[in-house]
């Protein structure tokens, strides 16, 4: 059986201030074309279909379009909810939608009830383990201590128990949305440590033929049978080195896995640059990032004037500008109270300007600060007299 493994669509999410809906629609078109081109037997989507629990209408419409296009292919699709999704909202109408071959698995109680598909070699059981928030599902799984490992282990016990009751030779696929030990995170995944230690060992999934993971945005192979597809699009500059893709998985008659990475369309490359503003502007290599979305980190010891506008003249798709000055500020090692001791309002304000900008105020700026403090004092005096 040939599977296409994808996850973390995050429909409705923006990249900094860029609306990604067109890029997400392009990915859906690519997904449908890939299913057709590679004669895929089943599609698995391992959570975070949406970016938030109540997605914008445009994202819902895109998801609806994806469902109709996948159903029209006649290729079964199995989806689970992720930690960004509202499981109940995503699962509305699951019974009816299932009749069209789109199987939504969002209820923790159904972890041990598979979607069963057939090929020339027999049955393949697909078990959907949606994101399991430990505090919310510990009673469902009868675990004493709420933790990611304990609830996932209990869910997998149900999977293995159901599988043991099926015909010998039944192959198995598990969809799960979790942080598995050995996976490499990026800046764009939502932290799930609030439910206890986030990472769970890959051994939790022992006993099945393939585990299609979602949550981490980089495509990763933890073992031959346990893989992350990653997100089809980049959602943070920490993903600049990612190769966005999906896994094409072939399960043979014995359940052996053969995997191939299929690239996803990239709306724009990502670039991260760092240095002093003048050095960057004079760097002949800067032009190669003209078509990229760019994150720039300036290391000037003093914050330069109009840095964003000046860089944007050469980098029209500059999206993020950070300031990390190359300077040693010994004052940072002194307590706040010590730094303020014996200093007047004017001196404190001037020190603040120097700390933020890297250089203290000039004479004109000092005069502005002085006038401001004089006005505040005069107002306070008038209020006191009026009492």
UniProtKB/TrEMBL annotation:
GO terms for biological process: DNA recombination; DNA replication. Keywords: DNA recombination, DNA replication, Endonuclease, Exonuclease, Hydrolase, Nuclease. The keyword Nuclease applies. Gene3D superfamilies: 3.60.21.10. The keyword Hydrolase applies. PANTHER family: COMPONENT OF ATP-DEPENDENT DSDNA EXONUCLEASE (PTHR30337), NUCLEASE SBCCD SUBUNIT D (PTHR30337:SF0). Belongs to the SbcD family. NCBIfam families: sbcd. SbcCD cleaves DNA hairpin structures. These structures can inhibit DNA replication and are intermediates in certain DNA recombination reactions. The complex acts as a 3'->5' double strand exonuclease that can open hairpins. It also has a 5' single-strand endonuclease activity. This is Nuclease SbcCD subunit D. It comes from Streptomyces mangrovisoli.
